[in-house]
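Take a look at my tokenised protein here and describe the backbone shape.
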Amino acid sequence: MMNSYQFQLVFSIHPNEDAEQYLDALFEAGCDDALISIGKPGYLAADFTRESSSAYEAIKTAIEAVTKAISHAKLIKAAPYIANLSEMANLFGCSKQNLSKYARGESPKSDSFPCPVVSGKVDYWYVLDVALWLYKNNKLNIQKQDIDSLKAIHDLNIAIEEVRNQYDHDNNFLDLVKSIAA
């Protein structure tokens, strides 16, 4: 069964080149289901709505299409990944106040609302964590395919970080985190 998956991929290209020169090549390589943004020099973002049998396959084929058109393009990130409540309200089609209520624990079962990954004047959450909470608690109309897409995006960003930060990890910390983290 084919589903529609929405995601954004951000790539770096050479800082002094005009990304506009690649628009036709991207279309011909199979990015006809993407809105291409070329505003920031040295970067290119592609917002896809791709039909596929799985979120992984949709994202994989999108990456392959972009790198076919621009062989030197380097994948920087996939989105949505980390967002504040306003951004997630827009993404999930609800109000910021609604999500704020859950985040503050002012709703039944909201005591288990995910912790932010960045706390400050504005807090940021992993979008996948919040979507899973909403899905499991039947708070909004979150579909399974949305969860699948967000999981693939989350996993891809973790893989990007692993490749970008090619240093040895202390497995003692990994073991410690596994023993105490939920």
Observations:
- The chain has a mean pLDDT of 90.
- The first strand starts at residue 3 and ends at 12.
- The chain has seven helices and six strands.
- The helical segments are 23-29, 55-69, 85-92, 96-103, 127-136, 144-164, 171-180.
